[in-house]
């Protein structure tokens, strides 16, 4: 195959929720992109920019043939299985996809001399917080295989960067939320477990109500508090990380959130305001493994990467999700909602 010599960014998982927003952001900035995705959870329609290769990260030969076709300056890695409960029930599935397959990707990068890597990590690496807000040096004691799989990759990256010619940035997202402000791509998980899309399902009438998992937490209204960060701001942080590495910056890890927490009840109230709909609620028991409060301290990302969220307002976040959610049912799910 002839090598395309123009420099490309390879986006593994670029047909998913966050990776597709990333692909759009990079193309808007003039980067050339290649999406690699097996479409296990992603959507071909979301890989709308750059080039697309359907390939599983378990398929090393397939990866080699993609890498052989381009000059690649950096890899952004969004692929993972992401359901905490499933990771407890079937940890092997998580360790194979999130750990082994990431090692495959790093191996093929090395073989092709690709030296910059940006990794989708998570607040789940911290486990139950002992301090709020959560800064980068907070103890890392994940409480489920999903969180452990992500921490393992952070540790592997540290070792690889020490031994090989690799520089990386690990970005630990808190709760990714919202959709592309132009509504080109957005959140479409199946099954959906995240609070905001489920609340919007209830607003649309696609489900009867939203369950609140736990009303007896040690929080102002008894429900869990989370730090919701707009998906476009996550993409912006990746661009900043790419520029950091491109400018010779050191390998590093950053926590990404807005630094402000919203309870489950506050999210439902904000969604009622944004949608103008009644959203019926049922109160249920706690969901296993949910810490009461998760709020990021993102000061380091702001100072080192010069990153600043542009869509921090929770009603704006929910409004972008609401516009997308209606389009999702109308144009993709082809349902009456
Ligand atoms: P997603 O499921 O929408 O996207 C992941 C994409 O990777 C999908 O398109 C899927 O088809 C693809 N994929 C998975 N395994 C693959 C494999 N073996 N080979 C090729 N493609 C594969 O998930 P998302 O919500 O966009 O999350 C992206 C990343 O961010 C994940 O690594 C996740 O752990 C991390 N993260 C997400 C959140 C969140 O709130 N959504 C929070 C913290 C961290
Ligand atoms: N949650 C809820 N009802 C739902 C889904 C989620 O009460 O149907 C709560 C969940 O217990 C957590 C918060 O909403 O406290 C955010 O959950 P989500 O699954 O969106 O993200 P997580 O914090 O688990 O990454």
Topology at a glance:
Blueprint: E1 4-12, H1 17-28, E2 32-37, E3 51-54, H2 60-68, E4 70-77, H3 84-89, H4 91-111, E5 116-122, H5 145-163, E6 167-173, E7 175-177, H6 195-204, E8 210-213, E9 225-226, E10 228-230, H7 231-246, E11 252-256, E12 262-263, H8 264-275, E13 281-284, E14 293-294, H9 299-304, H10 314-332
Parallel strand pairs: 1-2, 1-4, 2-3, 4-5, 5-6, 6-11, 7-10, 8-13, 9-14
Antiparallel strand pairs: 9-12
Bound molecules: nicotinamide-adenine-dinucleotide (NAD) and uridine-5'-diphosphate.
Residues 175, 193-195, 198, 210-213, 224, 226, 264, 287, 290 line the site of uridine-5'-diphosphate.
Keywords:
binds uridine-5'-diphosphate; 14 strands; binds nicotinamide-adenine-dinucleotide; 3-stranded mixed sheet; single chain; globular; alpha/beta
């Amino acid at each position: 195959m002839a090598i395309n010599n123009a420099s490309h960014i390879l986006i593994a998982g670029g047909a998913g929720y966050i990776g597709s927003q990333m692909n759009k952001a990079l193309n808007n900035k003039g980067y050339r992109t290649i999406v690699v995705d097996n479409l296990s959870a992603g959507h071909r329609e979301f890989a709308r920019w750059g080039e697309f290769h359907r390939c599983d990260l378990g398929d090393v030969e397939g990866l080699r043939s993609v890498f052989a076709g381009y000059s690649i300056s950096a890899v952004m890695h969004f692929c993972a299985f992401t359901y905490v409960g499933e990771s407890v029930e079937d940890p092997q599935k998580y360790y194979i996809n999130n750990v082994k397959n990431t090692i495959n990707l790093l191996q093929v990068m090395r073989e092709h001399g690709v030296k910059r890597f940006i990794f989708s990590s998570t607040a789940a690496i911290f486990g139950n917080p002992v301090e709020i807000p959560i800064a980068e040096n907070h103890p890392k004691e994940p409480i489920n295989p999903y969180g452990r799989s992500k921490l393992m990759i952070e540790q592997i990256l540290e070792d690889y960067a020490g031994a090989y010619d690799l520089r990386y940035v690990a970005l630990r997202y808190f709760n990714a939320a919202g959709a592309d402000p132009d509504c080109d791509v957005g959140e479409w998980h199946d099954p959906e477990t995240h609070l905001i899309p489920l609340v919007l399902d209830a607003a649309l009438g696609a489900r009867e109500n939203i369950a609140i998992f736990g009303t007896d937490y040690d929080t102002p209204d008894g429900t869990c508090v989370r730090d919701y960060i707009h998906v476009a701001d996550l993409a912006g942080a990746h661009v900043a990380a790419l520029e950091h590495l491109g400018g010779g910056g050191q390998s590093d890890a950053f926590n990404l959130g807005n630094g402000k927490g919203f309870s489950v009840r506050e999210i439902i109230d904000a969604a009622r305001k944004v949608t103008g709909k009644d959203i019926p609620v049922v109160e249920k028991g706690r969901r296993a493994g949910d810490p009461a409060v998760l709020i990021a301290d993102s000061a380091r990302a702001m100072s080192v990467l010069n990153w600043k969220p542009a869509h921090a307002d929770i009603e704006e976040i929910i409004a972008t999700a609401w516009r997308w959610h209606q389009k999702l049912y109308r144009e993709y799910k082809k349902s009456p909602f």
